[in-house]
């Protein structure tokens, strides 16, 4: 099931379709069913440290980077010695106790294969650290995404700040106007919106439609997006990009750097509910 956002053109309206040449991908909660495991790993580590914070309090913040989640919950600076110790310990607990049982959402790999077959640049844009992302992509069966992946290690600020998305746009190399992001949290929506990148939301990470307000389209999960792929923002954008390339060939005209999207724009205000 899909629902276009009220204030953004939906799949049925093809009067103005921007070409799409790259898709920026969140991983946790979007392609992998891992959000609950991340919350439980944090809770386990807090309990070890004598901090009484249950997974139910952590869960709404999963999708933020550790640099934001830790001080929000505990008041501990992520750059302090204690903060760094807790963050590293959380990685250890997650990798040992939870990662082996993490599985992709249904048809997640098939969706990646479809987009890759369409010639799209696929760039991971995750708040996970680089070393943790390696394990997540192994669980997804998509280690081939790692060389161009963007993680919290590549940006000064994690989601919901736009830094990771902006780095991913630069990595894709096609300009922000020809990128679409796929994510599952309000933090993804806010980061993409502030980077002036369109985003498709998925509900499988546990967030409701009102939490994902600002997304151009919302689907249940990767399977639902794949089922509606041709009518989605991505599928229509792929066709628009092919038509644009055909026009360029016919007219003998190539796009300038500015027409490819140019430099990322200025930040815009946060989306509602993010």
3D structure, described in words:
The protein is α/β, with parallel strands linked by helices and 274 residues long. It is built from ten helices and six strands. The chain has two domains: 2-33 and 103-260, HAD superfamily/HAD-like (Rossmann fold, 3-Layer(aba) Sandwich), CATH 3.40.50.1000; 35-101, Putative phosphatase, domain 2 (DNA polymerase, domain 1), CATH 1.10.150. It has helices at 35-48, 55-58, 66-74, 81-98, 108-117, 130-140, 163-172, 186-194, 222-227, 233-251; strands spanning 2-4, 22-25, 121-124, 179-183, 198-202, 217-219. The protein has a six-stranded mixed beta sheet with strand order 1-6-5-4-2-3, with helices on both faces. It is elongated. Mean pLDDT is 89; it is low at 4-15 and 261-274.
Pick out its properties:
274 residues, DNA polymerase, domain 1, 6-stranded mixed sheet, 6 strands
Identify the CATH homologous superfamily of the largest domain.
HAD superfamily/HAD-like
Low-confidence stretches: 4-15, 261-274
Which oligomeric form is depicted? single chain
- Helical residues, percent: 40-55%
The CATH C-level name of the largest domain is Alpha Beta
What name does the CATH topology of the largest domain carry? Rossmann fold
Strand order of the largest sheet: 1-6-5-4-2-3
Strand content: 5-15%
Cα separation of the termini:
23 Å
Largest sheet: 6 strands, mixed
Brief summary:
The protein has 274 residues and is α/β, with parallel strands linked by helices. It has ten helices and six strands, in the order E-E-H-H-H-H-H-E-H-H-E-H-E-E-H-H.
